[in-house]
Design brief:
The structure is a single chain. By secondary structure, the protein is mostly helical. Helix content is 83%, strand content 0%. The protein has a domain at 21-104 and 152-185. It contains 4 helices and no strands. Helix 1 packs antiparallel against helix 2, helix 1 (4-61) packs parallel to helix 4 and helix 3 (112-123) packs antiparallel against helix 4 (129-185). It is rod-shaped, with a radius of gyration of 28 Å. 22% of the residues are buried.
Length: 186
């Protein structure tokens, strides 16, 4: 004999647990990634601004002559490399914004699809409509959670790449600035 009531209760519990997982994927992780992306973008604005200001400062600080070109070449190289790395990092940070990539909804054509499904089962005199409907909802929750997890994982890779590029940009900008200071004042 089938334990239909136990099966339905189990599906109900699974749907409840899956809803929590969906909420974590859609809201909690998403919120954290937005905060991280925003911080990265602000930091990149500072790094890009520093690089551009450094170019201008280097150009004005050193008298323009051909013998100074050898002196400025490594400085411009490192500062230019820093600027390029920062712009690439900016691209990755912008591409990690949650609106790009998106999440799957729990329905394809609207919430009525579940009630229509239940009605169709009722109209056909199918037994255990509740379990069938819960199974359908659970299936959609699973698909949405899997897609959300992949979306969050892809976004995390972009944010991590952007972070590594920021570190590289700051290191190369610092190298260019230190070379300039040592050659100018020593």
């Amino acid at each position: 004999m089938c334990d239909t009531e136990g099966y339905t209760k189990s599906l109900d519990k699974l749907v409840s647990m899956s809803e929590k997982e969906y909420y974590v994927q859609l809201v909690d992780i998403n919120r954290h990634q937005i905060i991280v992306a925003r911080a990265i973008l602000w930091l990149l604005v500072v790094v890009i601004g520093f690089d551009i200001a450094s170019f201008e400062w280097f150009f004005n600080k050193v008298p323009q002559s051909t013998d100074k070109l050898v002196f400025l070449a490594p400085v411009y190289f490192f500062t230019g490399l820093s600027l390029i790395l920062a712009v690439i990092a900016f691209y990755f940070a912008v591409m990690s914004i949650p609106a790009i990539g998106g999440y799957k909804t729990l329905h394809k054509n609207g919430w009525a699809e579940y009630s229509n499904y239940a009605y169709d089962q009722f109209d056909q005199d199918v037994e255990n409509i509740e379990a069938l409907t819960l199974n359908k909802i659970l299936s959609r929750l699973d698909t949405a959670c899997t897609h959300g997890s992949k979306t969050n994982s892809d976004r995390a890779i972009k944010l991590r790449t952007s972070s590594y590029l920021i570190i590289s940009a700051v290191v190369t900008a610092t190298a260019g600035f230190l070379i300039f200071l040592f050659k100018l004042y020593l």
